Amino acid sequence: TTLSSYLPAHKMITSSYERIIEEYKRYVNETFQYSLELQSLGKMVKGAVTKEAAVKPKYKGTGILMLEPTYRHIILEDMSEWPTGIVLDDGMFLACESSVEQQVVMRSIFGKEGLFNLKLVGNGIVALESYVPRDELIEITLENDVLRVDGNFAVAWSGSLEFSVEKSTKTLLGSGMTGEGLVNVYRGSGK
Question: What is the pLDDT of residues 143-169, one digit of tens each?
């Protein structure tokens, strides 16, 4: 097969794609109000830490809103299920209703302040991106308890839980020898 045999199909795909984009633009312009929100300096600094954009698009209206494609699963969470808020692992946040407030919380590493996570608080629906569908996630409820998780297997947790990163054994050398190293530790009550 030669390259020339692929060209007509490529043109057909391109023209179909262009028609879809034009229809999308027409539909969005007629149905939604679109604005860009430039974050304050403080929010820009927090956004740099949590890898969020300094300029955020806002859509207001009713109907269907098409987003960029993703190979991940979209999970819609009702914030009423998370009364103390939900803290997210990096890269999970996609979108939320304007009634949901975004905050930055700091992790404790070896008892010292360290990395940051995004915390969502309020009422409304949030859209999260996950590598697995919602029905494959296991939800664990803690009641004044401690949970240790290796790696990034915990993708979201209640804002009421105390989160820290600790050595898996008593010494750093022992942690290195077991191959485990560090674990995420969640203390308190929540899920």
Answer: 999 999 987 788 999 999 998 888 777
Could you tell me how far CA 43 lies from the centroid of its own chain? 17
> Which residues lie below 8 Å from residue 62, measured CB to CB, with a gap of 6+?
31
State the Cα torsion 117-121-124-128 to the nearest 10°.
10
pTM over 0.85: no
The alpha carbon dihedral of 52, 56, 59, 65 has a sign of negative
- Integer-rounded Cα radius of gyration of the chain: 21
Q: How far apart are the first and last CA of the chain?
A: 56
d(CA 33, CA 63): 11
Alpha carbon distance 94, 158 (integer Å): 18
Return the number of other C-beta atoms located less than 10 Å from residue 129's C-beta.
17
Q: Residues 87, 132, 80, 141: is their CA dihedral positive or negative?
A: negative
DSSP 8-class letter at 151: T
